[in-house]
């Protein structure tokens, strides 16, 4: 879940001020800007979060999803079964997968305390279609967490994030394996229903490791 927290923090879009705009033409700047804005938004809305954890979904919807290519990710997750679905099924799967991501990231944000984010220097991306952005999450008393974001260039030359790699494991690849297996076993309609059910689950604050060990 800590991996999802990092994703929530580092690929969300900021809308805190009317004049603030994310530089979507530069994937490195995009990741950096949205990370900073997301942490600021979390701190700004702390009272609302404390009174109702579902407000985290609002933050995710407003700060994260505009800069996540969830349709591309949903299609990748469906894998070989994409061609076996109807246009209506694909649309409903994408919608369900988006909601599932919102709920997943909102739950992950319950773990946020006051982590710092450090970004590796940018590389030349002028001829690239996909770039990898290396990030470290710094938390006092713990080793740095090294992760990598993947972003893709869209047809209009803007960029969106679509995957997160932590400890050598791609979040997109792991979800593709999990969900494609479910589609094979239960069918696309059952998987859409399952994703919608997960979207509706209540956001709960998870106990800390220290509390759980007590």
Walkthrough of the structure:
With about 210 residues, this protein is an alpha+beta fold. About 50% of the residues lie in helices and about 15% in strands. The chain contains 9 helices and 5 strands, in the order H-H-H-H-H-H-E-E-E-E-E-H-H-H. The protein has helices at about 1-10, 25-45, 45-50, 55-65, 70-80, 85-110, 170-185, 190-200, 210-214, and strands at about 115-120, 130-140, 145-155, 160-165, 170. The chain has a 5-stranded antiparallel sheet. The longest helix has 23 residues, at about 85-110. The radius of gyration is 17 Å and the shape is globular.
Element layout with pairings:
Layout: H1 2-10, H2 27-44, H3 46-51, H4 55-64, H5 70-78, H6 87-109, E1 116-119, E2 130-138, E3 145-153, E4 159-166, E5 169-170, H7 171-186, H8 188-200, H9 209-213
Antiparallel strand pairs: 1-2, 2-3, 3-4, 4-5
């Amino acid at each position: 879940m800590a991996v999802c927290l990092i994703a929530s923090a580092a690929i969300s879009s900021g809308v805190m001020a009317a004049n603030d705009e994310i530089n979507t033409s530069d994937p490195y700047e995009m990741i950096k800007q949205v990370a900073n804005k997301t942490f600021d938004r979390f701190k700004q809305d702390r009272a609302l979060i404390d009174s109702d954890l579902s407000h985290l979904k609002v933050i995710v919807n407003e700060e994260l999803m505009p800069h996540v290519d969830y349709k591309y990710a949903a299609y990748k997750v469906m894998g070989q079964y994409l061609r076996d679905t109807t246009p209506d099924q694909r649309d409903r799967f994408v919608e369900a997968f988006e909601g599932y991501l919102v709920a997943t990231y909102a739950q992950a944000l319950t773990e946020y305390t006051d982590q710092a984010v450090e970004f590796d220097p940018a590389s030349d991306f002028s001829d690239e279609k996909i770039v990898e952005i290396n990030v470290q999450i710094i938390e006092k008393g713990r080793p740095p967490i090294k992760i990598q974001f993947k972003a893709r260039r869209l047809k209009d030359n803007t960029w969106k994030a679509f995957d997160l790699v932590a400890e050598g494991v791609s979040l997109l690849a792991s979800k593709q394996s999990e969900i494609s297996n479910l589609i094979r076993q239960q069918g696309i309609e059952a998987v859409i229903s399952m994703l919608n059910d997960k979207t509706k689950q209540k956001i709960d604050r998870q106990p800390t490791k220290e509390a759980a060990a007590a």
